[in-house]
Design brief:
Elements lengths: L2 H22 L4 H17 L1 H6 L3 H19 L17 H19 L2 H12 L4 H8 L3 H18 L3
């Protein structure tokens, strides 16, 4: 298998994870698609390094975070998030699922970017504290304190 075939197969398996991660970081779906695509482009350019990485998921997560941070800095004042999403319910189970997803997104939106990142990396991508520290470029102690504060803040903001 040549480099392009290997990357194409790997990237196809990563697309949904990258897209969901970007959405959980607060991107709209079109923004999330841009972030995921830019992440894959950067990974393709550095494919030899990605392949050799001891913790490939952490390496790719760091690329995703960097792309997201750059996109956030460049974001224009064009599209602004709204507090309430119009109700477009289609049925009981789907409406409940949509409400749950919306509640999680709103709760994550209340977190600082650093706190949101560690929650995403720990509980969605299931990285270890060491891998999160490597991906975020911070010491493991910072990861632990950010997770602790984020969980406390999420507990205060989410109704069970």
């Amino acid at each position: 298998m040549d480099k392009d075939e290997e990357f194409t197969e790997w990237a196809a398996g990563q697309w949904q994870r990258l897209l969901r991660s970007a959405v959980l970081l607060g991107c709209s779906l079109p923004e999330a698609e841009d972030v995921a695509q830019a992440t894959l482009v950067r990974c393709y350019v550095k494919w030899a390094q990605v392949r050799r990485a001891d913790h490939r998921t952490a390496y790719v997560a760091r690329v995703l975070l960097n792309v997201h941070r750059e996109a956030r800095r460049k974001r224009s004042a064009g599209e602004l998030p709204v507090a309430d999403v119009p109700d477009a319910s289609t049925g009981g189970d789907e409406a409940e699922r949509a409400a749950s997803v919306d509640a999680v997104r709103r709760a994550l939106g209340l977190l600082s970017p650093g706190h949101c990142e560690v929650v995403l990396l720990r509980y969605y991508l299931q990285l270890s504290e060491r891998e999160i520290a490597d991906a975020c470029g911070v010491p493991p102690g910072t990861v632990k304190s950010r997770l602790s504060r984020a969980i406390a803040q999420l507990g205060d903001s989410v109704e069970l």
